[in-house]
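Case study 2.
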Amino acid sequence: SLGDGLRPGCLADATDRGQIQETVILGELAKRALKEGVQIIIEGPGHMPIDQIEANVLLVKKICGGAPFYVLGPLVTDISPGYDHIAGAIGGALAGYWGADYLCYLTPSEHLRLPTVDDVREGVIITRIAAHAADIAKGTSGALDKDIEMARARKNLDWGKQISLSIDPEKARRYRKESKITGDKCTMCGKYCAIDIVNKYFRQDKARPKVK
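Prediction:
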């Protein structure tokens, strides 16, 4: 892994002279490594405004000869301690769409303390969501399949299927159980469930005799 010691540590440093110069050097090192048959990946920035992510990913991929690119987020804001995993997932989804090959997961405790096991789990899950979103946007084969299945399960109010398709079934199951709902609806809309109402109308329409 060719690290980037001059990567931006805050948004104000993103895409500055030091970062770009180091990227050029990383490109030279990548070329030397590949010439000798050494496999490498390139590390990327950790803090970056949304509007600079595309340019940075394309620049690194170009300068480093298309070598696999690993981004540390990037975090799209610096004011999210306790929620840095979310800020990183936003940047990661965009970076993944524009060509980053690996996403570094962030935890809720980033910049605050060492992560707990629960922090790590939450960070990994939300980073998987970012990667999945990027794969969908890129048209990766099969990426949308589970989302289509989820749409059908929601139409059918099939809660077991919805939970099994969830990226975190344990949490989805717990939320469903905590709502103490009866029947096939949820506590968000209850008897005003739009899906249930529409399904009933469609069933009634199918039952009507067709006018010849």
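The beta strands are 42-43, 69-71, 102-103.
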